[in-house]
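Inputs:
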Amino acid sequence: MDQAQIYAKLTSVFRDVLDEDDLALTAATTADDVDGWDSLSHIRLVLAVSKSFGVKFSASEIGGLKNVGEFVELIQKKS
Amino acid sequence: MSLTSPLFFAFLAGVILAYHISESVPYRRLVLGFGNAIFIASYLTDYIQILPLLAFLLLGYACVSILSVWKSSLALGLAVLGVLACYVFLKRFSFFDDLGRLPFPYLTIGLSYILFRILHIMVDVHSGDLEERIGPTAFFRYTCNFLCFVSGPIQRYQDFRAADGIAVVKLDADAVFRAFSRVVAGYAKFVIIAAVAEYAFSFLKPQLFQAGDPSFARLCMLYAAAASLYTVYLYYNFSGYMDIVLASGVLLGQTLPENFDRPFSARSFLEFWQRWHMTLSQWFKFYLFNPLVMLLMSCFPAPALTAYLGVFAFFVTFLVMGVWHGTTAVFVVYGLLMGAGASINKLWQVACAERLGKKRYRTMTETLGYVYFARGVTISYFVLALTCLWTPELSDFTRLIGRLGPAGMSAAFAGIAFAFGLFWWLADRVAPRLAAPAFLATARDSLVGRNLTLASQMMVIVAVTALLHKSPDFVYKAF
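Outputs:
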């Protein structure tokens, strides 16, 4: 799966979990930029991404994610 | 050895000089290893006192080694339980007195932070985040790094490894000056601000327990002043210590993580803990809060429950974090207060967002009145909860709270909240007008000006130490 496909699928997961239909993601997007992306919805996002992409994340990966770009790279590495 | 002792300064200077004699990585690692051993040995008066700590380290290393080849969840669970049981036994928690204790005095300083490092390595080795085999000397250098031994910061092994005795340490005159400036600023916080606050606190605290019948207003003011002074003492003592540790790390090629980020500017209890003792909060977030929320969400997947699962997870996380701070029953009260603070904060956020909608709630939190109110309430809650740390015996704690009663506690809470809110309101108005004239700023930033600033701080440190007739100790080493 290339990065463009991951971004498309990830955007769909984010919109679904955060209930924001017009949400657009870039590599630099952080939790501060997205309304509702807090420590709780972060875990819900991780669970949804795990299910959607069929990958598992470790404790330090979940805690250490700084932006969407890192999320995408991690998914690409694992899938 | 105490951080404010000449012995520590001589030791630190010796390690830094020895470290830079050669760029050989094995040599530098040897220097750091010996440095750690000498630092720990300075706390001992008999070799037997080190044996429990050595046993704890050996157990941790054995668990890490087993997990690196047997990555099952059962092995991780058993390893975590074993290490935790050993920690609880060695730390002598008063509620587990029946378990018995070792029949000789031994070293417990640093044990809590070694526990965090060992648990982190075990979890990361099990999950595959740490795939390399960690040698026993690297394990010792990481878990017992003398800079972080007493009270953190809690550095991740991955970050430690990247700077462990590396050959190239980029130091120029400016970087060295900045490091020494921070060391001196740390000592200034420690020896001037924290020591003066402690001096005033020690003067007020006995009056709270004195026999007699002080007026209600006097008792409330006395309590509010003592609790606030203790908080100032704790913050400047701990953050000054961190300045010394982090700046010393720069001279040894180590980039240690920051532990404080202007905590008293926080607008909520949850934000406060993202700014106070940050590496501890992050550790708990990584290894307790996140896994607990994941477990809860897997069991109760309905999105409508997310916020309430969060309230519960915040409560549990902050309860454990609070209880970790001490070994007596009053620290359970502290844990409950931390847990209550975090979960009430989350409930408030949920209720406001539901009632006002996310956007209106966000707009409300940006209004000036809300900002100063929220800062005042946040700090006041923390200040009062810290009472547990300066009355570690439950009998003293209950006596003090009983004497104040609900009305006294409420009045102290309101008074501290108002005072801190007002302080921030004034600070935000006055600080921008205090910019130094251009010629003074130029003089201050010149070579002579910068060195004069440093020398002045050292002179004030000497003067205050002479005035107070004592060298303060590091308060957090007890936790």
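Remarks. Chain B touches chain A through 27 residues (CB under 8 Å). DSSP finds 19 helices and no strands in chain B.
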